[in-house]
Amino acid sequence: MESWSIAKQTGLYFAVLSLTLLPIAYLTEWMEHSVTGFLIYFGIFVAIFVIIWVAQYFFWKNKISRFNSKIEKP
């Protein structure tokens, strides 16, 4: 939804991804079946999500800036 803010889009994407992957990780035993195991898995999940999100954000920001600079040249 282009009318939504980037924060709202990211938040919804994170929620859907979390609600999908966390049960799968639990059922496939990718995490220890304890509160500690859940917290460790979720922490790693959040860290990877943030790293990928920031990398993609700056990649596309740079790419769009270069594209816009080419458009502005006569």
Describe this structure as you would to a colleague.
By secondary structure, the protein is mostly helical. The chain has one domain (6-72). It contains two helices and no strands. Helix 1 packs antiparallel against helix 2.
Short summary:
The chain is an all-alpha fold and 74 residues long.
Helix content: over 70%
- Average of per-residue pLDDT values: 94
Uncertain stretches of 5 or more adjacent residues: none
Radius of gyration: 18 Å
> How do the SSEs run, as a string of H and E?
HH
What portion of residues belong to β-strands? under 5%
Query: How can the largest sheet be summarized?
Result: none
Sequence-ordered SSE layout with sheet pairings:
Elements: H1 6-27, H2 35-72
Helix pairs in contact: 1-2
Task: Output the keywords.
single chain, mainly alpha, 74 residues
